[in-house]
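Most newcomers find our protein records easier to grasp once they have seen one. Read left to right, the backbone structure tokens trace the chain's path through space. Nothing more is needed to start thinking about how sequence determines fold. An example says more than a description, so a record of this kind follows:
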Amino acid sequence: MSMIFKPIAYLGCPYSDPDPIVRKYRERAVTQMAFDLHAKGILTYSPLTHNMPLDRLGVFGDFQTWLDFDHSMLSRCNKLLVLKLPGWEESKGLRAEIECAKSLNIPIEAIEPDQAFLEKITCSEESLTPMAELLKQVNILVEERDWSQFHSPKNLAMNLQVESSEVAEHFTWLTEDKSYHLTPKQKQEVSAELGDVLISLVQLSDTLGIDLINATMQKIESIKNKYPSGLSKGKAIKYTHYEKIDSH
């Protein structure tokens, strides 16, 4: 018995934006559209809908990683559907998908979302997590000053190291006891330096497309596995020490 494969549509839309509210809105909108198309019997591949969960689990793909993957998927689809959300004409990724479809002679169709569709999508300021709100404010700060041109991953990583060393500088030559009991002035200065560290860390993770909260939760699980509480409780030794014990 031969199998009959149905055609699949590739659903493209804009995503990248310095404002996390915009990104969240776009992800929700394209996912809702993919759902609506499936409900109509149109098999649909939505790269944003399918890739973001993988990225959050630790793929940490950059623009080129997902570009190569998505264009390979597009080459297997019978048409490209362009969801015209606000900002679609300025989208670097969507523009690349359109050019790819043209080069492969894949038909391109536009989808103009109507008011009824847009009303399904809700994404307000109140839905932002504290981390997303922090990222939004950092990105606004950077965009207003046109500093993003200097913020390559290399530069951000180096700046993170510099900012971290400035935290440590405040504790140089303090005794163990005094490091616990900073003066109000010292605490204020350390607080400012920690703010610099977090800004650099948030910028670096965002530039690389890394979900910082998810990455941290994964790291916590990894530490739990490497340092079982029964073996490591009250001990400041590296996990490889436990592996050596187990091997004997």
